[in-house]
Amino acid sequence: SIKDQQHELNEWIRFGLRLGLQSALHPFEYAKVLIQIGYEPLAPRPVRSILGYDTMVLPNIFQYVKYIRSVDGHMGCFRGLMPRLVGTIVGSVGSDRIARHLGLAEVKDNYEDDEETSDGYQMSREDGDIERRNFQRRLKRDIVIHTSTLLIAQPFQVISIRMMAQFVGRESLYSSIYAAAKEIYQEHGLLGFFSGLVPRIIGDISCLVLASTTAYLVKKHFLTDKESSNMFPIFANYIFSTIFYPFHVVSTCMSVSGSSLTAGRPPCMPLYSNWRDCWQHLNCTGELKRGSALFWRYYRTPEVINKNFPMTFAPLPTVTKYK
Questions:
Q1: Spans of the Solcar repeats (predicted)?
Q2: Is pTM, for the whole model, over 0.90?
């Protein structure tokens, strides 16, 4: 029907805008990846906090991007973009086909179907059981799509991260998608393309399930107006994304650890045996939140160093003067 065609067109337009936004913001993602793997090329500077005590802050995300541009130029800020875009495209198309093959049709939101009486009062919504079943169907479809997207796109995610991690040691091993795929296969075999997949799936799927369930329960029992019901899922997703952010840091580190890159070997990064090993180390050194703050990035020397990891990361540049 015309309505379905219009809906499909809107989806493609939305997808195109998503790719455009992803491309425009890639320099910030580039800087964030380098921060997540623990690379800090610029020295922290002394500042006075709002509470009045002296502390140290690392350069914000804009200063970090500026530094990358000063080293590699404007085009250098977009290193790793191509495999990231390819991963997004094949992941989205592939996951949608998997969902259709499994018979998981898209469930329309009931908020758009609510009718109003002649007195201006909103009529009662669908029966509670139907609403609950729709939520379960929608959540099941989202889990399948999200999981399959991660599985399909992970090889390109690993390639993209390693391309960006080359900045640390100034290597050129991962000059293209083909060269990167060849290098990863020679080093780690097929499993190398899925480095960091487990923590990423755990973090993303846990966030999806908890955010969706919380939003559904709150909208059902506490929210009555349409505007609040539409805004709360965004808020819930932000909260749970923050909670599960450490899984993204671990996933990024595991995508690089053990590779031939300088960024993936001591002293820049320990050689982790598995992702739990990486989690334990980052937890002990207080680094599980790397990259979560983009502006006020407070620096502190790790207070606890695990004896199993004598080399935590490459030393930061030293501050020559402190007032």
A1: 133-221
A2: no
